[in-house]
Write a structure and sequence with these properties.
The chain is α/β, with parallel strands linked by helices and 271 residues long. Strands 1-2-3-4-6-5 form a six-stranded mixed beta sheet.
Length: 271
């Protein structure tokens, strides 16, 4: 795994994206313009939010997770913001699972299904994984027989292709997409984002935290390599034993098998 040096991080790196958009003064207007909605109160967004049904199920890590709440702290709508720079060939399935985990965590035992609130999974990508040539794709469940009829399950999965920023009609959304694509800030909103990126890149606490993250990733990678090597060696040994046993059972001289495999005669007899 290649870990980008801290000084090279920009807004398209999930860690920096999470840090910047965990600021609700940045996240709220971004979501409002992207979805053409008005948010009354946005809880402080959580970067790298981890949700899971339980220990037996795969957890998910959202780049930025945010909730709109009422005066009682109850969720009105939830938003997952994902900065996705590579086509992993499973983004639609990932969006499906992200949505299901959020629903599963939100719905307590005994709750009615009507308690489920609108949920938006928002992917920001440089590439068009759908190959349709569009700047954005908005998905919701509709009847195939009549696409004017929606399922009204309150789930929305949107993909924004920021490399096609010139094709966005809304000038503010266009400026956001242009910034993601080029790092050029030419609006008040994107200038605020740019300044926040600069702040984090000069912040010693953020740098220290990222260096710890780099070290942890390196340690996990090295551990994974060691475990993978040990597993491969164990598998090769078992295959070698099976081969020696096969030669023995076919009547080959034990001395010849020993010479060919490196096992002692006693070991070959024990297989």
């Amino acid at each position: 795994m290649n870990i980008k040096p801290f000084d090279e991080l920009d807004i398209t790196d999930p860690i920096m994206f999470g840090l910047v958009f965990s600021n609700k003064d940045i996240a709220q207007p971004f979501i409002e313009h992207l979805l053409d909605i008005k948010i009354d109160h946005l809880e402080t967004p959580t970067p790298e939010a981890v949700l899971s049904f339980d220990a037996n199920h795969k957890s998910v890590r959202y780049d930025v997770f945010a909730r709109e709440t009422n005066e009682n702290g109850e969720t009105i709508r939830s938003f997952d913001l994902e900065m996705q720079m590579t086509d992993t060939k499973e983004l639609p399935q990932r969006a499906r699972y992200y949505q299901s985990v959020c629903d599963g965590v939100a719905l307590a035992k005994g709750d009615f299904y009507t308690s489920l609130k609108p949920q938006y999974i928002l992917f920001l990508c440089p590439m068009d994984i759908f190959k349709g040539g569009l700047p954005a794709y908005h998905f919701e469940n509709r009847a195939r027989e009549n696409t004017n009829i929606t399922l009204n399950d309150l789930t929305f999965k949107n993909f924004y292709i920021f490399s096609k920023y010139e094709e966005f009609a809304d000038p503010i959304v266009k400026a956001y997409m242009k910034y993601f694509a080029t790092r050029n800030a030419d609006s008040n909103e994107t200038e605020t984002i740019k300044n926040k990126v600069s702040f984090f890149k000069t912040d010693t606490f953020t740098r220290s935290k990222y260096m710890t993250y780099e070290y942890d990733l390196h340690e996990r990678e090295e551990k994974g390599k060691a475990e993978g090597k040990a597993e491969a060696e164990a598998k090769a040994l078992e295959e070698k034993k099976a081969m020696a046993k096969g030669f023995r059972d076919d009547g080959f001289p034990l001395e010849a098998i020993s010479k060919r495999t490196g096992f002692t005669i006693d070991e070959i007899k024990s297989f």
